Amino acid sequence: QVQLVETGGGLVQVGDSLRLSCVASGDAFSGYYMAWFRQAPGKEREFVAATTRVGGFTYYDDSVSGRFTISRDNAENTGYLQMDNLKPEDTAVYYCAADSKPLNTATMRSWADYVSWGQGTQVTVSS
Fold it and tell me: pLDDT tens-digit profile of 20-44?
């Protein structure tokens, strides 16, 4: 299975942008669905966005739709999460996840359906 490492988190102000990266190794990244989840202190891990193996379909949680963009470059074995117009409620540890089995919009939202996870990167949005 693929190994994942996230980078790109940081401390930003309300309205700023950040781009998170997820570098995959150990297997062909193009064989995996990819998603981003986040977890705020005291809260459960929640779905943010997901995309299919070649990025032809993207799916977002309503809380980030229109502000976040998920993408991938399989030639570089890297996935991305572009986050614009950040809000304080976006503050969380962000995790990249991947799985090789086909996923639908229901299973894309389920953290239990992903076998590979990164270590997480902290995003803090200050008001």
Answer: 999 999 999 999 999 999 999 999 9
